[in-house]
Amino acid sequence: MAGYVSEITQFISALKANKPQLEAEQRQGRAIWWDKRPLDVDERSEQNKARVPQKPYPYYSD
Fold first, then answer.
1. Which of 19, 21, 34, 54 has a CA-to-CA distance to 13 between 20 and 30 Å?
2. What is the distance between the alpha carbons of residues 5 and 60, in angstroms, rounded to a whole number?
């Protein structure tokens, strides 16, 4: 079965051949949405101090 290539693999190979910039666009999109710098410890502590405590059940009017 070494000569078998699935339809999905054929599709991806054709897509990459037709759009060579595709992988670079994927990396750019990942950098925008997922690859973030870690938060600074001081910045994180300030964010935690600024939080407003929530009631366990906000709809209870007591």
1. 34
2. 61
